[in-house]
Amino acid sequence: MIEIRDLRRSFGGVKALDGVTLTVRGGERRAVIGPNGAGKTTLFNVLTGELPPTGGDVRLAGAQITRLRPWQRARLGLARVYQRTELFAPLSARENVALAVAARAGPYRGFRAPPRSEYTAADALLERVGLAGRENAAARILSHGERRQLELAVALAQRPRVLLLDEPTAGMSPAETARITELISGLDRALTILIVEHDMDVVFRLADRVSVLHEGRVIADGTVSEIRGDVRVHDVYLGKAVSVA
Amino acid sequence: MSSAVRWLAVAAVAIGLVAFPYWSAAWESSRFATTVLRDMLVFAIFALSLDILVGHAGLPSLGHAAFFGGGAYAAGIASQRLGTDQLPVTLGAAVLVAGVLALVIGMLVVRSEGIFFLMLTLALAQIVFAIAFQWTAVTGGSNGLAGVSRPTLMGTDLSAPDRMYVLVALTFLGVCLLVWSLMRSPYGRALTGVRENERRMRALGYDTARLKLSAFVVAGMIAGVAGALSAYSQRFVSPGDAGIGTSVQAFVMVLIGGAGTILGPVLGAGVVMYIQRVLSSAIPVSETVLGLVFIVFVLLAREGIVGLGRAAYARARAR
Amino acid sequence: MSPELLFQQALNGLSFGALLFILAAGLSLVFGMMDVVNLAHGAFYMLGAYVALSVVQLTGSFWLALVAAPIALGALGLLLEPLLLRRLRGRHLDQVLLTIGVSLVIVDQIGLLWGREVRSLPFPPGLDGSVALIGGVYPVYRLFVIVFGIALAAAIAVIYRRTKLGMLIRAGVEDAEMLGALGVNTDRLFAITFAVGAALAGLAGVIAAPVFGLQPGMDVDALLYSLVVVVVGGLGTLGGAVAGSVLVGPVDTFGKVLFQEFALAVIFAIVALVLLFKPTGLLGRIRIAR
């Protein structure tokens, strides 16, 4: 479903991505882990199109998307949950999700008010992520955990084929983490999920396979148990790895 | 208030507005009030169009007068050069010219934001002003375009003050309806999304550049309509109609009234015109008053009069 | 165009450029430090010219006016920044709107206090003659403007690079937030910067007055020209103000001679082009101004 080949991205002299190659099959749940500065968020930014790569290419379901704009990739089924919540602050939770629901049909639909169906669909999604009762609350007054739930609802409302989760449990209490993890775990198995996470328990719970990023490159790629036992991964996390310049 | 009552109230106000010259004649024969109200409504249309950009799409344009002036000149020049006073022709010319200008300028500015957007719109509008000011052969140059004739519609001559007023009032109501329904539609909701978080809108699959450009063109065309009405009303077009002063004036109206609403720009136009037309004959410091009022609003009442009203209403309900 | 005429126009271009530098430096500085485009900059310029007019009327001394006007404008800036702008810290767009209001008030008050007729300021005695220059005569005053502009640029450069205040301002332009975190009183720094910007605008007003006169609308012209210079040369840097004025001065002068009718349009077209392809200006650096 996702093929990333030799992806590169430099900022001046800094090589944030130094030849990342990875392939994710349809329906797979892949975790991307690595120490801070490994390039995980940059990878996501290049995947969504917000950052152009300086080399390499990306394919989605076989189609080249390297040169496509973010909104074009979204229309092809790519959705993202941001690390720092990116919501429409003064709008209600329902309106936030409704905007995502309506994206497919586009905004050029005449002068009448948006159809009720968009809002009922939004409410259904809100209930699914555990925000029933909070539909009318403005996004800015929601708690941190609730906002992450809303983010998930918004992403799901896009009816994506591929979901990119950027540190979904960052800053959450154990209870909130458990709830979000259950939610993600319960998502449709046809959905391909790429998840960046620091919390290893979440990774082991959710992932089928794990890719380990270090200094802009994939240094290990395998099932959860394989990665668990991989010495290189341990070294990288414990800072013993020698930089491959 | 139930929605039926609200609609009735709106209808009553609308009828009262359109019929103003007729019932105001009872207490005022000089037509001064009608003229002031007419000019207020022209600027209300202009302010409403700017609000599409400033209030709804979140695009702070300081060059909107380019389309107002462009439309005004187009209407005036069309009536003089084409030898016709037919309203559809001259108004159509205004909308066309303003729309094309907005398309060209819009394509150039849509990729910038914030302060840069502001300065770019200012600079590009100044080009329009400069052309109006210098191109004496076509626009009359610094002397302006004089002798603009008032339009006729299907045989009816609209020159008389009453009829001119009715034209303006009806157009105003039409624009209010247009903007109101546009903002309730998925399009308006998408513009709100662009205003609040453009990055997220892109991530959702919306082509935000196209949304912003279309808003720019729609706003420009409506501004062109206002410009044409101004040309007819004053029978005159001056380069200043495309100048920074006019752009600033509209911005002040939108902010004082309340950006992002229908009532806001209209109230703002009323307040500003009142200060500039009525107050100015009573006291010599009207522009100072306007500046001070504006400063106070920016500091203390950023959401404008409508915002103050909403806050007061919320407080009253909380009791 | 004959070589004499060319030379004269070149000098005109340079003197206009020198004036533009004095005018635009303040705007650039304020933007660089505070991320605010002071749309009252033209009004400050105008006020400086009118204050000079009164000073000259009262005392007969142009040189006194040259000192008094910037001081007056500086004081005004020192008053306005804490009174108005500081309340909207972080809300850059709203601060810009605030300056619009300030501009409206100042311009109206000028009209009330000094009237709206066209006024003029005589050349200071000693600088009112002409000097024989290659093939013709040239007004001494304009040469003075060139010299003054260069001297001022040099003085500013020295202060900017070698004094503590200059260092603080440079650091503030680079990253004001960081400076505040380091314990520097950024409130006071901002107020001083704004005051300096206003003073420079006022100074430009005095210098320009004998050449351009005083009339309603001069604030708009000044604002637009300073915007052009700052945008073209580079937002936020003094080097940019120099680059911009050195470019725009001669271009505008020759443009008016060559294109006459559309010179104004040409200037703004250049602005638009620069903003489109290099939004930070020719010498500017990347800034995120939200």
What does this structure look like?
The complex is a heterotrimer of chains A (245), B (319) and C (290). Chain A contains 9 helices and 10 strands. Chain A has helices at 40-48, 70-75, 93-103, 116-128, 144-157, 174-185, 200-206, 224-229, 231-238; strands at 2-11, 14-24, 29-33, 55-60, 63-64, 78-81, 162-166, 192-196, 209-214, 217-223. In chain A, α6 (174-185) links the parallel β7 (162-166) and β8. In chain A, α3 crosses α4, α3 (93-103) runs parallel beside α5 (144-157) and α4 (116-128) crosses α5. The model of chain A has no long low-confidence stretch (mean pLDDT 87). In chain B, the strands form 2 sheets. A two-stranded antiparallel ribbon of chain B has the order 1-4. Chain B has a two-stranded antiparallel sheet with strand order 2-3. Chain B has helices at residues 3-18, 20-24, 32-56, 65-81, 87-109, 114-134, 136-139, 161-184, 186-204, 208-234, 244-257, 263-282, 286-300, 304-318; strands at residues 145-146, 152-153, 156-157, 236-237. Chain B is globular and about 55 Å long. With 319 residues, chain B is an all-alpha fold. Chain B has one domain (3-244). Chain B is 77% helix and 3% strand. With 290 residues, chain C is mainly alpha-helical. Helix content of chain C is 75%, strand content 3%. Chain C has a two-stranded antiparallel ribbon with strand order 1-2. In chain C, β1 and β2 form a beta hairpin. In chain C, α5 crosses α6 (164-181). Chain C is globular. Chains B and C meet through α6, α11 and α13 of B and α4, α8 and α10 of C.
- What pattern of helices and strands is seen along the backbone of chain B? HHHHHHHEEEHHHEHHHH
Note the main sheet of chain C: 2 strands, antiparallel
Structural class of chain C: mainly alpha
Helical segment count of chain B: 14
Query: Total domains of chain B, how many?
Result: 1
Mean pLDDT of chain B: 91
E-strand count of chain C:
2
Q: What does the average pLDDT of chain C come to?
A: 87
Percent strand of chain B equals: under 5%
